[in-house]
Amino acid sequence: MTDVKKLYIKTYGCQMNVYDSERMAEAMGGAGYVETQEPSEADMILLNTCHIREKAAEKVYSELGRFRALKVEKPDLKIGVAGCVAQAEGEEIMRRQPLVDLVVGPQSYHRLPEMEVRVRKGEKALDTDFPAEDKFDTLRHRPKAARGPTAFLTVQEGCDKFCAFCVVPYTRGAEVSRPAERVLEEARDLVARGVREITLLGQNVNAYHGAGVGGDWSLARLIWALSDIEGLERIRFTTSHPNDMQDDLIAAHGECAKLMPYLHLPVQSGSDRILKRMNRGHTADGYLRLIERIRSARPDILLSGDFIVGFPEETEADFQATLDLIEAVNYGYAFSFKYSTRPGTPAAERPQVDEAVKSERLQRLQALITRQQRAAQDAMVGRTVGVLFEKAGRLPGQMVGKSDYLHAVHVSDAGAHPGDLAQVEITGSGSNSLAGRIVAI
Ligand code: 5AD
Ligand code: SF4
């Protein structure tokens, strides 16, 4: 029998990294590792990194520095860097930081167990290939551990859109969709272990075109097939590109009862001049017309978006156009970022907006978005919505879950359990969650 060793994984960035970390832990489970939440107990530490915005590599170096003392105390401790920073700067990390034993990119982490054997022998291991084999073929089955009621499931990876600011096409590679049957198999496996809500993940999830019965399937077709799985109650997906919002997907939002009324549809800017420079392939008006079509299929859908302020050459008028678009859409949720130059991307070479101007625009944009978020949350009071309970709250008898619209909801009624899907009457709206009363389970 192999000795049990402990693995500590720290995850940065997007939901796909959360999913990848789970899969890495599962792969290492096969090599005799159990997960720990405590770095000082670990035999191996993995940083699953994100490269999307500035100072990504600096953050990794400073985090690695914090593990130096641990490695002195415990010379057998192995330290690895995974994820998109590993992909982009792995060799340099290996050179600059002797603490690092292992570097693994997002497409090759199924090889972690073999790499572990090498680092245990005192070698260094680096793998940032885009291998011909699919990592999910190696990691076919999910271990049978008990799970919470929600799970992520990657169905598509990579991106061919090449927005001028974005590193994803370089770090995650070209767009690839998993075969539909593989996705369904993984979903059934998750549901058999208590999962009731699945969020389908992809950098361009609505460009999904996985091989299926009768040819390539669209994301809508996949969602309909998933909705036939008994015990799976809720389906979500993220992140989508406006140009891939096909008619069948819009229709599914109106017709598929298990598809939740929430859509993350980033637009980045409301100025056509900037959208063109960003290489987005759509206009502000095209986006607004798309939103109208989505809302006519599902009038109560809650929309969320991503915005970049201070993209190179953004003027006050361009920025104002973004605020106008936000006013016109009325978002339920939004994420906003100051533009940061990413090496190797086209926009990095262009005239940059002053940092102080970026900060001031970000504040104005966030003030508007906060008002909209607040209003969307407050408008839930008095409505009865579905809530999937996930865990106990901080107060005795309290349960916390997510509404159909992804708002956090807490109830004080005794008797609800994690995994219960209830109808809840919303009675109050707090700073970042709703309060409610169970009407029916
Ligand atoms: N600077 C700022 N924000 C960025 N994003 C992607 N690249 C950059 C960048 N260079 C944002 C986009 C994207 C989200 C995931 O991160 O808004 O939708
Ligand atoms: Fe990046 Fe644009 Fe692709 Fe999204 S669509 S991952 S922002 S290049």
Automatic annotation (TrEMBL):
InterPro entries: Elp3/MiaA/NifB-like_rSAM (IPR006638), Methylthiotransferase (IPR005839), Methylthiotransferase_CS (IPR020612), Methylthiotransferase_N (IPR013848), Methylthiotransferase_N_sf (IPR038135), MiaB_methiolase (IPR006463), rSAM (IPR007197), rSAM_horseshoe (IPR023404). [4Fe-4S] cluster 1 binds at residues 14, 50, 84. GO terms for molecular function: 4 iron, 4 sulfur cluster binding; metal ion binding; tRNA-2-methylthio-N(6)-dimethylallyladenosine(37) synthase activity. [4Fe-4S] cluster 2 binds at residues 159, 163, 166. It catalyses: 2-thio-N(6)-dimethylallyladenosine(37) in tRNA + S-adenosyl-L-methionine = 2-methylsulfanyl-N(6)-dimethylallyladenosine(37) in tRNA + S-adenosyl-L-homocysteine + H(+); N(6)-dimethylallyladenosine(37) in tRNA + (sulfur carrier)-SH + AH2 + 2 S-adenosyl-L-methionine = 2-methylsulfanyl-N(6)-dimethylallyladenosine(37) in tRNA + (sulfur carrier)-H + 5'-deoxyadenosine + L-methionine + A + S-adenosyl-L-homocysteine + 2 H(+); N(6)-dimethylallyladenosine(37) in tRNA + (sulfur carrier)-SH + AH2 + S-adenosyl-L-methionine = 2-thio-N(6)-dimethylallyladenosine(37) in tRNA + (sulfur carrier)-H + 5'-deoxyadenosine + L-methionine + A + H(+). Its cofactor is [4Fe-4S] cluster. Residues 5-121 form the MTTase N-terminal domain. Binds 2 [4Fe-4S] clusters. One cluster is coordinated with 3 cysteines and an exchangeable S-adenosyl-L-methionine. Keywords: 4Fe-4S, Cytoplasm, Iron, Iron-sulfur, Metal-binding, S-adenosyl-L-methionine, Transferase, tRNA processing. It comes from the Bacteria. Catalyzes the methylthiolation of N6-(dimethylallyl)adenosine (i(6)A), leading to the formation of 2-methylthio-N6-(dimethylallyl)adenosine (ms(2)i(6)A) at position 37 in tRNAs that read codons beginning with uridine. Belongs to the methylthiotransferase family. MiaB subfamily. This is tRNA-2-methylthio-N(6)-dimethylallyladenosine synthase. The gene is miaB.
